[in-house]
Amino acid sequence: MKYDLVLKNATALIPTHPLDLGQRSNLKKEKIDIGISKGKISELGQISTQLGSKVLDLNNLIILPGVIDSQVHFREPGLTHKEDLESGTRAALLGGVTTIFEMPNTSPSTTTKELFFDKLERAKNRCHTNYAFYIGASAENAGHLNQLESLPHCCGVKVFMGSSTGSLLVEDDSLLETILKNTHKRLVVHCEDELRLKERKNLLQDHPSVALHPLWRDPITSYNAVKRLVTLAENLDRKVHVLHVTCQEEVEYLAHHKRTASVEVLPQHLTLFAPECYDRLGTKAQQNPPIREKHHQEALWKALNSGVIDVIGSDHAPHTLEEKARPYPQTPSGMPGVQTLLPIMLNHVHNSKLSLEKLTGLLTENVRDVFNIKNKGRIQIGFDADFTIIDPKKERLIENSWIQSKSKWTVFDGMKVTGWPVISIINGTICMQEDEILIPNSGTGTNFD
After folding, report:
1. What pLDDT is attached to residue 19?
2. Catalytic site residues?
3. pTM score > 0.85 for this model?
């Protein structure tokens, strides 16, 4: 058999139980060659170079399954002055991400079949990575979300329990219950209690400062919303996915409700902490839920390494520097992150905060399991040939000039990291190598079981 591409002389992160497709698998490192045919993984083992139409000698680099960022905001349509599908996926590809799930709080919000298909049409031949889109839950579409979530390349339904960027908001339990009853995929939820946010906003009246952001949107605001969500979900025997946890109270509670709730954490909450980040970065560090004090960060790391955390996403949410320069609290919340997701987390691996096997699971295998992704998220025969190839010893300085987002900035500007994505392969095609996009617009829609 002749392969379209053979990857030679590398260590791959492969599942310990490759035939068990119905559940999550642990990962192990194995020195292995990979044969690729027609965009699929067709052979794992020792493969002669003579069998490859093209052979890529990886010289002892490490092959991960293609990294999946399951939470990005690419702002198209309506807000394309700060991002669009082309620029956002270009940033993703340069950062070693091969698949993105894009959020619905665009303008207009993605809440109807027509608006969803408009996004799919916009994505055609413009995305540098594979893609899928969320439907946004609202009072208007709550009764027929089961039809909307079944649309092609729909990764699920997104709920905002607390107001953030955009107009989508589900603040009462009766509407949340209706949404849970009318969906079957795992519901993806931003957990902040809107009533508490309204009650506490007067804290900002006298001396508004971004340093007050984590006081206004305090840990109890997130904790209350998580408890409300999980209680409803358990009563209805539904599974939910809690986005961007930030505090000790949340993760200690969620540790006892893993049958119902999967959990996401962000690199910025694992890396930055208050008050230092607000003193140094100002409103650039402002996002919802907020970056909190050091003891909360330590609780997140404990939860990550004990198995409470399932997924790491970037919550890439760019705004222009001009927008961020407004006086707080008129400043928008959110920061770019899709391009720095992997470098920041590889640096944490280098610093022994977690293993590479653990990180790979959080970015690939676990995402596949949580969202029931078809044929992605692991290195296994028959799966799509999406790979993120890293050099774990490569040292780089993250700089604003490297950032491909239209926003052109990152909170990690000036940070030296060890570990870097050097090659991205999508559907069997080498699309990025050493910071250069070789084959643009190679992304296709992601499918789900």
Report:
1. 62
2. 315
3. yes
